[in-house]
Amino acid sequence: MRSHVGANQADGHEDELLGKAYDSRLVARLWEATRAYRRVVLVSAFLFFPIAALELLQPYLLKVAIDSHILRADWGGLTGVAGVFLLTLAGLYALRALQSYLMQLTGQRIMHDLRHRLFAHAQKMDAAFFDKNPVGRLMTRILNDVEAVSDMFGSGVVAILGDLVTVAGVVAVMLAMNWRLALVTFALVPVLAVSAAYFRGQARDAYRGLRTRLARLNAFLQENLQGMTVIQLFCREGAEQRAFVALNSDYRRAQFRSTVYDASLYAVVEAIGSAAVALLLWYGGGQIWEGVLTFGGLVAFIEYTNRFFLPIRDLGAKYAVMQAAMASSERIFGLLDLEPGIRSGAAAARSEAPPIIEFKNVWFAYEGDEWVLSDCSFRVAAGERVALVGITGAGKTTIARLLNRSYEVARGKVLVGGLDVSEWDLTALRRRVGLVPQDVFLFTGSVEANLRLAADGAVRRDALERAAAVANARGFIESLPEGFGYEIKERGANLSQGQRQLLAIARALVYNPAVLVLDEATSSVDPESEALIQDAMERLLEGRTSLVIAHRLSTVQRADRVLVLHRGRVSEEGTHAELLRRGGLYSRLYELQCGR
Amino acid sequence: MPERLLLQHLRPYAGRYALGCGFLALASLCALAIPWMVKRAIEALEAGSAAGELQGYVAIILALAAAHGLVRLGSRFAILGGGQAVEFDLRNTLYGHLQKLSLGFYQTHRTGDLMSRASNDLSAVKLLVGFGALSLMATTITFVGTLVAMLAIDPRLTLYAMAPYPLLILLAKRFNSTVHRQSQAVQEQLGALSAQAHENLTGMTVVRAYTMEAGELRHFQRLNAEYLARSLRLARTQAAFSPLLGLIAGIGTLTILWIGGAAVAEKRITLGSFVAFNAYLAHLAWPTIALGWTLSIVRRGLAAMGRIAEILSVEPEFRDAADAVEIAPHVRNAAIEFRNLSFAYEGRGPALRNVTLTIPAGSTLAVVGPTGSGKSTLGALVPRLIDPPPGTLFIGGRDVRGIRLESLRRAVGYVPQDPFLFSRSLRENLALADDAADGKRLAEVARVAGLAEEIEGFLHGWETVVGERGLTVSGGQRQRAALARALLADPPILILDDAFANVDAAKEMEILHALSQVLRGRTTLIITHRLKAAREADWIVVLGEGRIVEQGPHDALIERGGLYARLWRIQQLEEEISRA
Questions:
Q1: In this complex, do A227 and B420 lie within 8 Å of one another by their Cβ atoms?
Q2: Cα B231–B235–B241 angle (5° rounding)?
Q3: What is the number of domains present in chain A?
Q4: Torsions phi, psi for A177 (to 5 deg)
Q5: CB contact under 8 A, B261 and A78
Q6: Cβ pairs bridging A and B (under 8 Å)
Q7: Per-residue pLDDT tens digits for B216-242
Q8: Where do the domains of chain B lie?
Q9: A295 and A392 share a domain?
Q10: What ipTM describes this predicted complex?
Q11: pLDDT at B383 > cutoff 80
Q12: What is the pLDDT of residues B358-368, one digit of tens each?
C-alpha cells in the first residue's frame, strides 16, 4: 500500500522536480538528435562572432565621432561615421533576425522529430504498456516535454554561448582601450554577480513555492468542484470557503514574495548600472583632466558597460531553461528506451494457413498470480461458428485479446492456423484475426475514413459502399448530410448507438479477416435497429471462422457450438439445445438472460 | 458588464494604485535626472571646473540611483501587489459563488471548463490589473517625462529624434497583431495534433485490432509537419520582430550622432547634452516595443473577465424563501410523503410519474426496480439535490420547499452509489458533518459501517489520505466511508441510494444487520438492486419507468408473481451461478 501512495505522489509532482542543468549522458543523446541539423546549429553559433563584433563597433564609432569629428566640427567626417553606423545597424538587424530564425528552426525541427519518435514508439508498444502508462502522462511527454527541450535550442544553450562571446569581446575591447578605467568597471562585477545570483536564487525558490501553492490551490478547487454535492449536503460551504481563502492567501503571499525578489533583481542591477556610470565619470573625469582619456572614450565606456551587464543579469534565466530541458529530456528518453514487451514473430503472411484457432492449456494473469485464465483449452475449426458465454469476469474478453496477441500468455499456447501466435508476424496475424471490441470506438473524421481504417487506399469506394450495404448501414449513411463524407465527432457522439454498431459491422466487413473475434455490444437499442444489427451480423459471420462473445439469444441459437467459460476455463460445451438439456450452468445462464 | 465588475473589484485598491502611480512618477523623475547629472558632469569637465564639482555630481548620481531603485520597487509592490489583491478577491468571490450553484449547474458545466476559467482566465485578469496596469501607467509617464526633458535640451533635435516614432509604433503594433494571429494558428494546430494523439492513445485497442499503426503514424506526421510549418512561419515573424528593439535604440543613437553631433559642432548644444539626449532616447525604446504587447494584455484580460462574469451572473437555483422554517435537527415526526409527484430533467422525458407514497416516521422503505426506473431521482429529491415541484414532497407534514435548505440537509443523511471522497485524511472525510467529532464517535460510526478493521490496517490509520491524490480505496470502501460520514451527523432521515453496490452481498447483509440498531427511530429510504437487502424493509416499492408498479411486503410481492418476483428469481439464479 505504501508503494502505491508513493507512486501516486511521485506522479503528481514528477514534473516539478528540477535537477542538474547539465547531464553529459543526456546532452550526448540530445546532440545525437541534432545530427540532421548540425550545419544549422553551427551556423547559428558562428553568427555570434560577427554580431558581437558589430555590437562592439558601435560604441567605438561613437567615440571616433565625438573625438575626431564632433569636437573638431568636422561635418563631412561625422556624416561618414554616421553612414558606417547605419551600416552596422542594418547588419546587426539582419544577422540577429537570421540567427533568431535559425535557432528557432533547430528547436522546432527537434521538437517535430521528438514528437514523431514518441508517437511512433507508442504505436509499437503493447497493451500492458498502456495499462501502466495513463494517456495523460503520454500526452505530457508528446506535448510539454518536447517543448521544454526545444526551448533549450531556441533560447537556452545557444544564447549562453552568445552571451559568453559578447562578454569576452567587451572585456577585451575595454582592456585594450583603457585598462585602468576597465578595471574600475570590473570592480562592480563581483557586486553585480553576487547580488544577481542572490536575487535570482531567491526568486527561483519563491517561484517554486508559488507553483506548489498554485498547484495546491487548483487541486483543492478542482476536487471541491467535483465534490460540490457532498459539500452542499453536509452544509460545509462555510468551512470550505475558509479553507479556500486560507490556501488563496497562502498563494497570494507566495506570489508577492516572488514579486519582491523579481523586482529587486531588476532594481539592483539597474542601480549598479547607474553606479557604474557614476564611477566612470568620477575616475574617467580625472583621466580627462590628465589628458589620458578623451570625451569620446568616456562615452564609449559608458556604452560598453551597459552591454557588459545585461548578459550577466540574464544568465540565471537561461540556466533555468537548461534545467527544465534536462528534466524533460530525461523523461522523453526514459519513455523511448522502454522496449515493447511483445515482439513480432518472423512468419510473414501465410494466406494458406487454415482459419483455425486453438487454445492449449493457456494460463494468463494481468497482474501477479491473479489468474484470469487457468488451463483454458478449446478449438474452433475452419468455418465454424462458436459462441462464448459466461458471467462477467469469467475471462471472455481476455480470450479475445490473446487471440490477436494484445497480451502474451503466461503458460500454454495460442495457435492460429496451426502456428503459435508468437511466431506470426504481428501485422499478418492481426490481418488474419479480426477483433471487434464491445465498445464501438469511432475516430473523428469522415464515415468513409472510419470504414477504411487500415485499408487506406487499397479498398475502392464502391467496395466500401457495398460493405455498408451488406451491413445495413448504407441507408442511414446516405441520409446523413454529406453521406460517406459526414464528419463523425469525438467518440461518435453525433451518431446513435445503433448506427455506431452498424458502422462497426461495416468496417469489419471492409477489413475482411478470415477469423473474426466479436465481442457483442450489450447496450440496448430500439427493436428496429436491433433487427438490422442481427441481420447484418449474420451476414458478417457468414463463411468465416468466428468466435463470438455472446449476449444475444439468437447468437447462441445460431452458433455451431457454445462454450461456457467459468472461472478461467471451459466448463461446458455443446450446442445450445444440448447444453439446455444437460441442465448445468448453461441452463441457469440462459434463464437469467431470458429473465432480463 | 465585465468592465463594471472589474472596476468594482478595483475600487477598494484605488489608493494603492494611486500610490503606485506616484512612485512611478518619482521613479521616472529619478531616471530622467541621472542623464541630466551626467550632462552637467560632462559640461563641468568641458569647462575644466574644480574636481569638487564633478565629485558632487557623482555623489548625486549615486544617490539618485539608490532612490530610483527604491521608488521603482515601491511602484511595483503597490501596483503588482494591488493586482494580486484583486486576483485574490476575485478568486474568493468566484469560489463562493460556485458553492451556491446546484447540481443542475454542475451537470451542464464540465469541471475542466470551470477550472480553466478559475485558473487561466483569472491569470489573464491578474495580468491586466497587474503588469498591464503598471505598463500602461509607466509608458504614459515615461513618454511624457522623456519628451519634456528632451524638449528642454533642444526642441529641434527632439523633433528629428521623434520623427520615426509614429512609424515605429505602427510597425510594432502590426507585428504584434501578426504574431498574435500566427500564434493562434500554431495553437490551433497544436490542438488538432494533440486531439489526434489523444484519440489514438485512447483507441489503441482498435488501432491494434485493425493494424492501423502505420496509417495513424502518417496522419500524425501530416499534422506534425503542418505544426512545424506554422511554427516556422511564426518564427520568421518573430525573427524580424525581436531585433527591432536594438534597431529602434540604434536609430535614435544614429539621429543624435548625426544631427546632434552637428549641433554640438555648431556649439548649439553641449557635449553633455548630447550624451544625455542619447540616454533619453534609449528610455523610449522599450515602451515603444512593449506597447502592442500591453494592449494585447488589456484585450485578453477583458475577454477573460467576460468569461468569469458569465459564471458570476448565473443565479443560484435555490434560495430560501423569506418565510422558510427550520426543522429541529432531531425531529421525531420525520415522515416523508410524496404527493402525486412527477419530475422530469430538463430536456428529457419524465423520470417520475404521479408517485404517491408515504414513509411513516421511523420506518424503513425499500425501493427496487430496473435501471432507469427513477429510483435515484426519488432519493435525490429528498435532500433537494434536485428540486421537487411545489406541493409534492413533504417532510413532517411540511413542504420541503418551505424548509430552510441548511436545516433540511442537516436532517437528511444521503449516501449515493458512487460517493466522492476528498483527498484528505480518513478522519477529515468522516468528520465532514462535524469537524469537532471525537475519536470515540468516529470509531463508532466506522464500526457500524463495517470499516473499523480496515482503518486499523491502513499504514497511517485514521490519518491515511484517501481520494484521488491519496490511497486508492476500493469502491466498497468508499461506499462504507460515505455511510459512516452520513451517520456521524446523526440524521433523523437516512437515504441509501444503492449504497452497497460495490460491497459483496455477504458484507452488505453484515452492514445492514449492524445498521438495523442504528436505523431504529430513523426514517429510512433504501434504494437497492439487491432484493435480499430490500426484503428486510417494512415496505417495498417497485418502480418501473417512473411509476410505482407494485408495493407491499416481500412475501406478498413474491406471491403476486409480478416484476418483483421475476427480479427475485434472476438474483437467485445469479447467486447459484456464482456458487457453481
A1: yes
A2: 145
A3: 2
A4: -70, -45
A5: yes
A6: 362
A7: 999 999 999 999 999 999 999 988 887
A8: 2-312, 336-579
A9: no
A10: 0.86
A11: yes
A12: 999 989 999 99
